[in-house]
Write a structure and sequence with these properties.
alpha/beta; binds nicotinamide-adenine-dinucleotide; 376 residues; globular; 12 helices; eight-stranded mixed beta sheet; seven-stranded mixed beta sheet
Length: 376
């Protein structure tokens, strides 16, 4: 079996699908790994490191490969370059780009979308949304810390006492919890809010205060552990109450997402204007429209002296470790799919069928098919 790792082409994408250590775990009698020249350079892995572990460096890693591993979804030209019967494993933004799923199906590709990996214990080591969110949560705090004209920890010095930064984190999923831990380690006073009351204990165990809002969040979690969308009245009341807390914070980090939907707006423009000059908002939902009304995707803007940071690909800003974790997710998934040196598709298996997006000329995921039929 030949595995191909092309160089990523999406603007700003510095990650690579396999790092040399991951290649080492795959190459053997049955498996050959081809890596496009320069594919790992932006993440800090030069071609020589891949060669040392037995990969072949090639000008084109897609032609002739049985399995193609990518980070970002392929563009139109890259989809056309895929051959019938090839297996593609990548982030494919299935709910945001259903037309891409259809193109892959028409191309006869068997495509697995890492976003569709079931969030079950058995698939934890294949869960790339979690691994990359971990990096995002960490990076968000570092961005905030370097933009804020203050330091995070309390300091008592001969030159006076500095009070600790106050950080408010909205959304305590994987990224939010990592942000809490990172901000706490830097010495900030942290509080966090999530509509899923189940996370209160996790927030507190990281040394942050769980913010209780006067809102009924009874039915806030779906069977998969994700947040459910709330009514517009709920969001309006949430904006009012969170806005008041944001005004007292030096840093607000927002991570609130509802799968398959644009992000809820939780920090309106007037709440940003009510924050102290010099304060920072880092919006991790920027790629999905933003939790802050002022967020502009991939921009850092100033609103009345408040910095609003809308980077949309934070994992790519820490590409070595983000790639290392993503590659581990891919290797574990491949080992799950491969038997005796070949991909064996067991469609009865929850992990295989869960992550499958296109196969045998058809889009296999029901939610994506629904979006296509709805004209999305
Ligand atoms: P996500 O990225 O979809 O959302 C981030 C957070 O935003 C979530 O905690 C969500 O509840 C919160 N949110 C949504 N709307 C909000 C609002 N209006 N106000 C405040 N917060 C809001 O979520 P995620 O981080 O990918 O993970 C979500 C869940 O999945 C968690 O329960 C997590 O523990 C679970 N999970 C399970 C596994 C596993 O079992 N293998 C792996 C990863 C995650």
């Amino acid at each position: 079996m030949i595995i191909g790792v092309p160089k990523e082409t999406r603007a700003g994408e510095h990650r690579v699908a396999l790092v040399p250590d991951a290649v080492k775990q795959l190459v053997g009698d049955d498996i050959e790994v081809r890596v496009q020249s320069d594919a790992g350079s932006a993440a800090g892995f030069p071609d020589a490191q891949y060669e040392e572990v037995g990969a072949q460096i090639v000008p084109d890693a897609v032609a002739g490969a049985d399995v193609v591993l990518r980070v970002a979804p392929p563009d139109d030209g890259e989809v056309s370059a895929l051959a019938k019967g090839q297996v593609l494993v990548s982030f494919l933004e299935p709910l945001d780009q259903p037309a891409l799923a259809q193109r892959l199906a028409h191309q006869g590709v068997t495509a697995f979308a890492m976003e569709l990996m079931p969030r079950i214990t058995r698939a934890q080591s294949m869960d790339a949304l979690s691994s990359q969110s971990t990096i995002s949560g960490y990076r968000a705090v570092l961005l905030a810390a370097t933009r804020l004209p203050k330091i995070f920890p309390m300091l008592v010095t001969a030159a006076g006492t500095l009070s600790p930064a106050k950080v408010l984190i909205i959304g305590a999923g994987v990224a939010g919890l990592q942000a809490i831990g990172t901000a706490r380690r830097l010495g900030a006073v942290v509080e966090a809010y999530d509509t899923r009351a189940a996370v209160k204990e996790q927030v507190e165990s990281l040394g942050a205060r769980f913010v209780e809002l006067d809102l009924d969040t009874g039915d806030s979690e779906d069977a998969g552990g994700y947040a459910k969308a709330q009514s517009e009245e709920f969001y309006a009341e949430q904006r009012k109450q969170l806005g008041a807390r944001a005004a007292k914070s030096d840093v607000v980090i927002t991570t609130a997402l509802v799968p398959g939907q644009t992000a809820p707006v939780l920090i309106p423009a007037d709440a940003v204007r009510a924050m102290k000059p010099g304060s920072v908002v880092v919006d991790l939902a920027a790629a999905k429209g933003g939790n802050c009304e002022c967020t502009e995707a991939d921009q850092e803007i100033e609103v009345d002296g408040v910095r609003v940071v809308g980077h949309t690909n934070l994992p790519s800003e820490i590409p070595a470790h983000a790639s290392q974790m993503y590659a581990k997710n891919l290797v574990t998934f491949l080992k799950h799919l491969v038997d005796e040196g070949k991909i064996q598709l067991d469609l009865e298996d929850e992990i295989t069928s869960g992550a499958l997006l296109a196969h045998d000329g058809a889009v296999t995921n029901e939610m994506v098919r629904g979006k296509l039929e709805g004209g999305a």
